[in-house]
Amino acid sequence: MRRNPFGVDICCRKGSRSPLQELYSPTQLELSNTAVLHQMRRDQVTDTCRANSALSRKRRVLTPSDLKHLVVDEDHELIYCYVPKVACTNWKRLMMVLTGRGKYSDPMEIPASEAHVAANLKTLNQYSIPEINHRLKSYMKFLFVREPFERLVSAYRNKFTQKYNTSFHKRYGTKIIRRQRKNATQEALRRGDDVRFEEFVAYLIDPHTQREEPFNEHWQTVHSLCHPCHIHYDLVGKYETLEEDSNYVLRLAGVGSYLRFPTYAKSTRTTDEMTTEFFQNISSEHQTQLYEVYKLDFLMFNYSVPSYLKLE
Question: Membrane spanning segments where (predicted)?
Fold first, then answer.
């Protein structure tokens, strides 16, 4: 048993250092520079949790059902909390390669639909309590985050403006139109496929929505999906430096020489400019209420208040 400077017990894998050891006591100089950046990101999360403890720790204890977003790779001692709309399809593909024991070699050969089949990856909630605690203590835990409103616009565009997403139109679109649109046509109420962004925002800030059921994972806050005030994440990757941060994780896991994060430019990607456009028609009152919903994500992951917001 080796102890690292941070007091985490690390059981060494045969013939190699664990990702946690590589992260906290790097052997290569260029990795140690990156380690400083990630220490700053960790500190930001810790400080935000401490400063907002009433908000961030509403839940005193996590239950196994809170852990269904944490994907486990036992072979490389990794735990990845996936956040929809933050490259989670490609990271699930990578986790399938890492846990597949030779079944896959190229992540991009795995169809996106296959990456989202729950049975293809093991999540932390499937373990016993002692097994969960052991893995939380000795595996490297990481997640990827994105500017909260850019992520929100990305979710809206994907789920409500694409004709093929009929399950979302039926499940959420019909409900949003029924509640938020005066004099909605019977056709709109039946199909739910033409939700406006303003209506989506009104639905998110409506207290009734939050009392009724948890947000869908595509627009749920990162702190509610991954519980960073209860789970100490060793590494916070950012969408803005996605390739760099992802390849750093792969290097720490000892697979960087043969596995890289898939590079391809998505032409439909939601950008900051696009997000600004979408917020043009949102009243300052609604912008302020929406910012309150996502405020902890902004603070925790060091995203400044967007310049286009007209907060009250």
Answer: none
Q: What's the CA gap between 265 and 268, in Å, rounded?
A: 9
**Complete DSSP assignment for 140-178:** EEEEEE--HHHHHHHHHHHHHS-TT-HHHIIIIIHHHHH
The model's pLDDT over 121-164, given as tens digits with 9 standing for 90+, comes to: 999 999 999 999 999 999 999 999 999 999 999 999 999 999 88
Collect all residues with Cβ–Cβ distance below 8 Å to 5 and sequence separation of at least 6.
Answer: 24, 25
Q: Return the number of other C-beta atoms located less than 10 Å from residue 11's C-beta.
A: 12
Residues 6 or more apart whose CB falls under 8 angstroms from that of 117 comprise: none
Q: What is the pTM of this model?
A: 0.91
Hey, is 197 helix, strand or coil?
Answer: helix
Phi-psi region of 62 (alpha: psi -120 to 50; beta: other; left: phi over 0): beta
Tell me how far CA of residue 232 lies from CA of 137, 195, 208, 276, in angstroms.
Answer: 9, 38, 32, 33
Distance CA 254, CA 258 (A): 9
Is 35's pLDDT higher than 70? yes
Question: Which residues lie across from 72 on neighbouring strands?
Answer: 79
Q: How many helices (H) and strands (E) does the chain have?
A: 16, 6
pLDDT at position 14 is: 42
Residue-range domain boundaries for the chain: 21-147+225-253, 149-218+271-301
Report whether 278 contacts 156 (CB < 8 A).
yes
Per-residue pLDDT of 231-265, as tens digits, reads: 999 999 999 999 999 999 999 999 999 999 998 76
- Strand, helix or coil for residue 190: helix
